[in-house]
Amino acid sequence: MGLTTYFRKKSPWLLHFNSGGCNGCDIELLAALTPRYDVERFGVKLKGSPRHADILVVTGPVTKQTRERLIRVYEQMPEPKAVVALGSCPASGCVFHDCYNTLAPLDKHIPVAAYVPGCPPRPEAIIFALVKVLEGMGK
Amino acid sequence: MTMVIPIGPQHPALKEPEYFRFEVKGEEIVDVDIYFGYAHRGIEETFARRNYKHNIYLSERICGICNICHSTCYSMAVERVAGIEPPERAKYVRSLILELERIHSHLLWLAVAAHQIGFDTLFMLAMRDREHVMDMREIISGGRVHSATNAIGGVRRDVTREQVPKLLENLDKVERSVNYYINLFQTDRTIRSRCEGVGVLTREDAIKLCAVGPVARASGVKTDIRVDDPYAAYPNLSFEVITETDGDVMAKGMVRLREMVESVKMVRQILKEMPNGPLRVPVDLKIPPNEAVQRVEAPRGELLYYIRSNGSEIPERVRVRTPTYASAPSLKPMFVGGTVAEIPIVLWSLDVCFACNDRVTLVDANTGKARVVTMEELRRWRS
Amino acid sequence: MVKILPKVLANLLRKPFTVKYPYEKVEPADGYRGKPSITKEKCIRCWQCIRACPDRAISIDKETKTPVIWLGRCTYCGECAEACPTKTIVMTKNFEFLDQYEK
Amino acid sequence: MNSQEVADLIKADADEIRIISERCLFASSDKKRFLNILRSLKSSGVTHISTITALDNGKSIELIYHFDCKPALLNLKIFLPMDDLKVPTITDLFPGAILYERDIMEMIGVVVEGHPDPRRLFLPEDWPQGKYPLRKQKEEKKA
Predict the structure, then answer these.
(1) Structural domains of chain B, count
(2) Nearest-CA neighbor of B73 among B299, B255, B297?
(3) 3-state secondary structure C30-57
(4) What is the reported pLDDT for B21?
(5) Mean pLDDT across the stretch A57-66?
(6) Chain C CB contacts of B57 below 8 Å
(7) Max alpha carbon distance in chain B (Å)?
């Protein structure tokens, strides 16, 4: 394991992108950052700019309007990067699977490292997923 | 020289994934234009392809923050179309989770508003207290966010006697901190200097542009569907409609904070007076042709569902009008004349789920070159 | 300055609010709707679950002729557990599962 | 105003008035006369339009205007034949209707005449012209 990877694993920064979801996963991600769950214990921080981020957290079924933005945000992130699909929507479309304006699943558009199932997943499940993704990043 | 500041388009709720273009002259905002549609998923069309029971879960996922309002409003509209009356206990359970949702949504509002004015301590405190409400919701409905409690003709889950002490205990904690926040909001220097006289919506504009919910109430318009068109257990509950007269961000915040106190009282009353009885009535979901309108006071204002049935198990048309959609036109008078630094808090004073909008592009009108600044940078500009 | 001292002391002495999640297990409240589990032996093949599912997450396993749930599409609403006459599908409290793609 | 008072007010220009309860009534009218109803509502103090629903019932397009008359909710229907999908704007009387009119324009293809801002609202930019998501295009589905 290289030195950079070692330090990156110590403090991964997240970028949250909502691709037209219902807000449920977004507030659970917010809850994971606040006192009760506090993912900052693992050095995880939410960042506003894709250029600072290591992990892209995507929520929502990909709508037609957000697709291009999503790909642009993904391309702006520096390597190595990982994508975590939060909730059932990016995995399969969930209840929106046959809506005319959604382009789920997410892995048709960008490569995905991990799916966190749940509608929405509990903050504990988000922590669990982030820990697992970090374990996988070093390999 | 006017500049254009586009904000967006990462935005979560149903039809409110806004993309704003602000035209600014120096620091002053001259014009604002709103683009919708980034989270448009085509839900209204999908409603007309699934049966009544499956649509409950689709309506719940229109918005994750006010999901119970959506599913309750949908279920009550279908009950009205089918001409059935849910049992009394079901009405009380519905009111209970609706009020819990109002508390958690307003606490979320407070948290993010504190974040937008750079008061991160309050952000963390409010999010901490919100967890008590989320625990209560988890006890009652089995899910932290999406409740899945409503069914057509009643509710699926009961509030048992063993759960009540735990709920009351959490309620006490919430009430204590809400009273603390009200005191804080009225006295704290940071909050007052950032919120007073900012983003004013006058009473005339609020009426003219059909604002709803706390936004209208902060401008002195006494409108509340819980009183105007009572539903569920609200005819039996005692509460007062909170109004303020100033119409600025401070007034909108105070309306929400004082509403939480009323909601806590209402939850106590519901837990005390909840009648015994069955939870749901059996329903034949082949509903003959009919139509109905149902309105619910969601945390953000009036929510309207129109349903038309056609004799089959699938509705002919479901129309959803969400509160932010109704309040969006009133953003313009709130912004125009203000400064760039006020954008985040004024936008959030409407409670539009702006939390994940974090990037702003500045386009110089003369050179046409774009430069990206973050919301953090915008917040700092004032100092 | 003196005014905040009692608050500081109270904060020093109280328990931390944060749950120690990955190191200590967290138990959700009773009736939490987590991962649905299927007991294949109990299934009487009435397919009520497929009809009840709001987003078509349940399909039929071709080999064993029992229902399988696509967890990536499930909304964890519990309608299938309610519809099942023999309690083949029950909602468990388990929420720790994820699908990881290794390149 | 409650339902009976609203019904008395609009009776001259409405065809069919159906009172559901004290707080809810349905009425229908046509394109030429419904502006009169709107004017009389406006002059008697109704300011809030809740929304406009557009629906395709196979034969014609229905527009339903939901007015909040405090406490009664008036649902005013007008029918538009398929070959004449034009309706005058109401934004001069009720400025809050501006987004709802943009919504019905793109969703069902009704042309709102005199609308101050006739752009698209929700649909993506590459959405084909002349295709409307809420229309029931039966011929297309068969083919």
Answers:
(1) 1
(2) B297
(3) CCCCCCEEECHHHCCCCCHHHHHCCCCC
(4) 76
(5) 84
(6) 54-55, 75, 77, 79
(7) 71
B139 domain-assigned: yes
Write out the CATH class of domain D3-137.
Answer: alpha beta
Residue of C nearest to B162 (CA): C30
Ordered structural domains, chain C, with CATH: 28-91 (3.30.70.20)
CB-CB contact of B191 with B184 (8 Å): yes
Whichever domain contains B319, its CATH number is 1.10.645.10
Residue ranges of the domains in chain A?
A: 12-136
Chains C and D touch (3+ CB pairs under 8 A): no
pTM: 0.91
Please provide residue B219's backbone torsions phi and psi, each rounded to the nearest 5 degrees.
-95, 10
Q: Which of B38, B144, B359 faces A63 most closely, judged by CB atoms?
A: B38
- What are the structure tokens assigned to C78, written together? 């519990």
Nearest CA in chain A to D125: A65
Q: What is the largest distance, in Å, between two alpha-carbon atoms of chain D?
A: 51
Q: Which residues of A touch C75 (CB under 8 A)?
A: 88, 94-95, 119
| DSSP string for residues in B204-234 | HHHHHTT--HHHHHHTT----HHHHS--TTG
**Integer angstrom CA distances of residue C98 from A16, A28, A129, D75, D130:** 19, 16, 7, 48, 43
What are B59's two structure tokens? 């309506």
- For the segment A106-131, what is each residue's pLDDT rounded down to a tens digit? 888 998 888 888 888 888 888 888 88
The secondary element (H helix, E strand) that includes residue D53 is strand D48-56
Residue B183 parent element (H or E)? helix B163-187
- Residue B33 in any domain: the answer is no
> What does the pLDDT read at residue A42?
85
Q: Do B142 and C52 touch (CB under 8 A)?
A: no
Residue B193 within a domain: yes
Residue with tokens 């409010």: B126
* Alpha carbons B14 and D103: distance in angstroms, whole number: 14
pLDDT in tens, chain B (383 residues): 677 776 655 433 233 445 677 788 888 888 887 776 677 788 888 888 889 999 999 888 888 888 888 899 999 999 999 999 999 999 999 999 999 999 999 998 898 888 888 888 898 999 999 999 999 999 998 888 888 889 999 999 899 999 999 999 999 999 999 999 999 989 988 889 888 888 899 999 899 888 888 999 999 999 899 988 898 899 999 999 999 998 899 999 999 999 999 999 999 999 999 999 999 998 888 899 999 999 999 888 888 999 999 999 999 988 888 887 888 788 888 888 888 778 778 888 887 653 223 333 333 333 333 444 444 444 444 33
The answer to whether C31 contacts chain B (CB < 8 Å) is yes
Please list every residue in chain A whose beta carbon sits closer than 8 Å to the beta carbon of residue D124. 64-65, 101
B4: its two tokens: 């254009």
DSSP code string of B266-299: HHHHHHHHPPPS-SB------PPSEEEEEEEEET
Exposure string (b/e) for B142-163, b if CB count within 10 Å is 16 or more?
A: bbbbbbbbbbbbbbbbebeeeb
Residue B106 lies in a domain: yes
Distance from the C41 Cα atom to the nearest Cα atom in chain A, whole angstroms:
26
Question: How far is Cα B300 from Cα B45, in angstroms, rounded to an integer?
Answer: 24
Pairing of strands D86-88, D111-113: parallel
**Token pair for A96:** 């929106």
Task: Please state which CATH number belongs to domain A12-136.
Answer: 3.40.50.12280
Between CA A79 and CA A64 the distance in angstroms is 26
Task: Tell me the shortest Cα–Cα distance from B36 to chain D, in angstroms.
Answer: 5
What distances in angstroms separate CA D97 from CA B215, D19, D94, one per listed residue?
17, 24, 6
